Amino acid sequence: MKEENYIAFDNYLSQSLSQEDLFAFEEKLSTDEDFKEAFETYRELSGFLERSLDDGHASKEFETNLKSISQNYFEKEKKQTQPTKASRTFRISQLAIAASVAVFLGLFIFNTFSGPDYYDYSNHDAISLTVRGNTEDVVSKAQNAFNNRDFEAAENYFTQILKTNTENIEVKLYKAISQIEQDKFNEADAMLSEIASGQSAYKYEAVWYAALSKLKQNDDEACLLLLREISEDADTYKKAQKLINKLD
Amino acid sequence: MGEKKIHEDQKYITGLLQNNSFVIQSIYDKYVPKVVNYIKQNSGSADEAQDIVQDVIITIYNQASQKNLQLTCPFDAYFFLLCKRKWLNYLKKNYNKEVTINESTVSISDNAQELAFATELFGEKQALFSEMFKQLGDACKDLLKATFKIKSMEEVAESLGVTYAYARKKKSLCIGKLTEMVRKSPKFNQLKL
After folding, report:
1. ipTM of the complex
2. Ranges for the RNA polymerase sigma-70 region domain (chain B) (predicted)?
3. Looking at the predicted structure, is the pLDDT value of residue A86 above 60?
4. Domain boundaries defined on chain B
């Protein structure tokens, strides 16, 4: 294939062929098999290069999100399939279940007689930021601090991560949650509204936490307004509806 | 293809394209357990299943974003078939195992077979592209990396100390070179069908 053909491919794809050249090009595409195959390959390669070389490409964000969901899923899966230990610990765990059922029942009864409270919702799921086999220091420290509810330390680590990884929305979200926990509402609310105005996968998660922040500030009105913004297909929709019912 | 009806499970493809965490999670909850079971029953581990599933979902995403993937069968059948075949290929490659595929227990529609096959081809092509890119000369590699990272050809030209026209020409010639390497590779002809 001649060099000029590749230059023509590029011009065609970037739509910078003149009307006349465009006709000739399309004519050649429909008659010349070899030309067409080369063009198709060229086009597929361009798409491939864009996806694999551009760090800001949507596919990179997708892969990061997918990996974290996958990691969570398989961690649970592996835990479940671990064989149960000696029967004595089994009895202890049964006891623990019975005890927690009692506690939950108590909480349930208590809750039905009192309004909802931030602490009903602040039992954050454990986060998982580290990829298997990769224990970058700050990242795993941040994760451990957050999961151990040491939110002050967690916030510091998240800030450090964001210095080098300024666009990591997931980390921004966790930082905001750590701030709510420390009653740093202004900073948290600003960060959450930034995430909520974007189109990332964490959009409604951010709205949910913004609402919880208002709940903790005893501003039920603002909390309700935020909860109603959560779209029906969001993960947080169901719990948002429940909270709306309790507040209303 | 145009005449076949699009299955309602197309929502999974759309959800993946939108990077919708809820949809991704529901794929894991609904469809991944079956894959994990299958792989575990066929000499695999949960870790291996995790990688296979992840690779398959990324291939589906890439194919959908580049080629407008239209699902004409249930997502379940398509997804399971893809994972299963990827697993069997993996076994063949890494353990040199002769595997017999027992299809009799599940009836798989032609649509699912056809679609899974197309996705598999797409995935293999991407792997070939990536292999060929590694073999490309350093000058071209650097120029392409700069081009797709920086996006503005003016800036690329400036950073490389060449004129705009030269940078653009060089970019198309480098992709052209890659096109030639791909088309000449024996693997490419196997993938052409």
Report:
1. 0.82
2. 27-94
3. no
4. 10-122, 136-191
